[in-house]
């Protein structure tokens, strides 16, 4: 298939929802994954587990300082949930793009999946600006514009929604997958995961955070070299539009990674976890062998421990006074990858409906719980009562936003994509 064909419409019947696209076929020795209403059950179950741990961590931290201290010292429950989300994205996002085989349609789906709810939550916070706690140093106009992009985590400006840092990593992953798709490298997931894991271990402390803004000595050499390599790879594409699109998206990826807030090893491990999910998808689609998938999975476990032990520098959390150790972070990453791997092996089984439903509305739960923690005044009751109350408000609000905002926006995006497909 020529590269330019990958950004044009390919005739096929409408598929399942974007976040639930099932692989077309199963690989060697793998059982078919159970689905419900076109959604992969094991992925929804994992999302349910992920958002549950995030909500318990964040709402619980406000009620029990001991929970915050425990998580900082022993196991980072909220980070575990976030990493589970990343593994799920690594599995399903390439499947979604390749099912469509149309980059524009893919981004239409992503835009109507993510931004309507995100912009609504952001609008509520800005409307309540005078009555809610403000991030230190937040500039209402300039910083609000930055926060609307979802890439604010890759700047030195404050985050309006603290939990939104994960959305920036998701967005960069979508861009990276899109670049690989245009270059025709999207099926080389085993190589991508291996390179990222090796770089996480070998280059974990080699670059400065916020490089583009702090500008240490020779700051420009690494992003310039990366952009040059992308430009050379893109030069073989058949049209200037494809070359411009590839270089443009790669420029955003490079700028974000060069100006990231986290150490290089952490960022590279995050993307490695995503690509581990992609490699497992490749196995189900018979695009790589089970041996390759197992090798990448095993390499990830080894590199997580080695990279955390080599590069981790803990920072004391001010409220609890606890400092995460290298093994705290290693255990968190390992648990996320292992839980994802276990659920993947059990993907042919049915999962409890309450858990899969929670996974289906997990995006609403993720954003709404952050909103509730900001706008709901401090409650005077007992910690357990307050925890249950805030969790209930989050859950009820999430059910409403999922059915009244998320689903209509996704359906509208599909109508736009369908109209484009038939034009």
From TrEMBL:
UniProt-listed InterPro entries: Acyl_transf_3_dom, Acyltransferase_3
Pfam families noted in UniProt: Acyl_transf_3
TM ranges: 45-65, 77-95, 107-129, 159-183, 195-213, 219-235, 242-258, 264-281, 293-311, 326-346, 355-377, 383-405
Name of the molecule in the record: Acyltransferase
Region ranges (Disordered): 1-26
Gene Ontology terms, MF aspect: acyltransferase activity
Swiss-Prot/TrEMBL keywords: Acyltransferase, Membrane, Transferase, Transmembrane, Transmembrane helix
Domain Acyltransferase: 41-401
